[in-house]
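Quick review question:
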């Protein structure tokens, strides 16, 4: 009998009949019991996460936007955080505290450890909430500006994560790539040229 299934039944989250139905279905499908119970509508992802955290003696937290540390999050690749539902929360001199959509996912924890030499302290949070907060955070870091010139509309997209700028013509074809640093230098050089012209 599944340990997680017995705990869910013990805490009154599912009935014995629902557990037996899920176990029978698990024999035919290569899925975890928790996933099957969610598919059957007998369990929510939040309830499953709470039980997994309880089983592994890992704290479960209700993550909120004000808990996000943009500087700390910026130390990890966006792809890694989104793929594994990870949110770094805060760090001390020797520890870094992170919350995961699946705090029992050893691959995700190992991935976090590969980016820091500090001890990683794990907690669990609702996966849907983590996804919502990460989507909101990374979309807010993207800035789009539109400029009209003789050639037609030019769209300039600036993304903080990779500091790349794309110039796109009206046909949608990328004309060239430049880094944000190059653009800043170019603007400053032009400003310097204008000032020199005024003094001449």
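Suggested answer, residue by residue:
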């Amino acid at each position: 009998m599944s340990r997680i299934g017995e705990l869910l039944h013990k805490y009154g989250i599912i009935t014995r009949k629902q557990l037996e139905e899920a176990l029978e279905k698990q024999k035919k499908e290569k899925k975890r019991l928790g996933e099957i119970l969610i598919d059957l509508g007998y369990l929510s992802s939040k309830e499953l996460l709470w039980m997994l955290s309880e089983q592994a003696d890992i704290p479960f937290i209700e993550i909120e936007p004000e808990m996000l540390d943009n500087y700390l999050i910026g130390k990890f690749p966006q792809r890694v955080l989104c793929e594994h539902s990870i949110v770094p929360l805060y760090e001390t001199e020797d520890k870094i505290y992170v919350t995961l959509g699946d705090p029992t996912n050893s691959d995700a924890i190992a991935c976090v450890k590969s980016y820091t030499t500090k001890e990683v302290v794990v907690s669990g949070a609702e996966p849907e909430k983590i996804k919502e907060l990460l989507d909101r955070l990374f979309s807010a870091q993207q800035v789009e500006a539109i400029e009209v010139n003789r050639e037609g509309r030019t769209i300039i997209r600036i993304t903080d994560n990779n500091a790349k700028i794309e110039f796109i013509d009206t046909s949608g074809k990328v004309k060239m790539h430049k880094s944000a640093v190059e653009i800043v230098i170019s603007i400053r050089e032009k400003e310097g040229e204008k000032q020199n012209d005024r003094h001449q």
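Why it works: The longest helix spans residues 180-199. The first strand starts at residue 86 and ends at 91.
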